[in-house]
Amino acid sequence: MLFMDFIAEIRRRHFISGEDISPIARSLNLSCTTVRKHLQTTEEPVYQRKIQTFPKLSEFQERLTLWLEMESRLPKKQRRTAQRLFECLQAEGYRGAYDSVQRYVKHWKLEQKITPAITKAFIPLAFPPGETCQFDWSEEFVELGGIGRKIKVGHFRLSYSRKMFVVAYPCETQEMVLDAHNKAFVFFGGVPLRMVLTLKTLFTLN
């Protein structure tokens, strides 16, 4: 989503749909302070002089700031490094130096420590090897014998290694849920201590 689109979406949801600031901030992974700021303007935010020390980066500052703000709410291992952010900006058309991106990221993080907008707290999601596997169904459309039809696909993912197993069925039944688990355990070479299932899957098993 482009940044002006972000601002338009925030203003539409607040002024037209009547949504409060907090749910808008949560759904867009923004701080309430940022949402309030965007509710007060329909133009691209203009940064203060102290941040305008990156001339080639100025066109991409808003994008980089939004990425940093969104990723600050993620566990540390899931956040992109300055090098990775630099590569992503290059894909967006940035032609400046890596040093500018690195200095901006460092400056932004330092500023957050000095004047934090909100108190951040995270519950780390750490899984020992072989302890947890996640399972869910998805609905897909395929062509079989020249005829399009809907199928159900079972998705398994080991929470520690992120290794995946996928298997397809004509429909979603209790027998097929159990068969999918049997095939997944054979593929993984063992049975995890805990399975994480969706509420819909639990209803299928009952």
Cα-to-Cα separation, first versus last residue: 41 Å
What value does the Rg take, in angstroms? 23 Å
Quaternary organization:
single chain
Low-confidence stretches: 44-52
Shape: extended
How many separate domains make up the residues?
Answer: 2
| Residue share in helix | 40-55%
Spatial order of the strands forming the largest sheet: 3-2-1-4
Largest sheet: 4 strands, mixed
Strand content: 15-25%
Continuous helix count: 8
Structure class: alpha+beta
| Average pLDDT score | 79
Quantity of strands, as a count: 4
Q: What are the secondary-structure elements, in order, as H or E?
A: HHHHHHEEEHEH
Question: If you had to describe this structure to a student in words, what would you say it looks like?
Answer:
The structure is a single chain. With 206 residues, this protein is of the alpha+beta class. It folds into 2 domains: 3-114, no CATH class; 132-205. Helix content is 44%, strand content 17%. It has 8 helices and 4 strands, in the order ααααααβββαβα. Strands 3-2-1-4 form a 4-stranded mixed sheet. Strand 1 and strand 2 (147-158) form a beta hairpin. Helix 2 packs across helix 3 (32-39) and helix 5 (82-91) packs across helix 6 (98-114). The chain is extended. It starts with a helix and ends with a helix.
Descriptors:
206 residues, alpha+beta, 2 domains, 4-stranded mixed sheet, extended
Quick recap of the structure?
Helix content is 44%, strand content 17%.
Layout of helices and strands:
Layout: H1 3-16, H2 21-28, H3 32-39, H4 61-71, H5 82-91, H6 98-114, E1 132-144, E2 147-158, E3 164-169, H7 174-188, E4 194-197, H8 199-205
Parallel strand pairs: 1-4
Antiparallel strand pairs: 1-2, 2-3
Helix pairs in contact: 2-3, 5-6
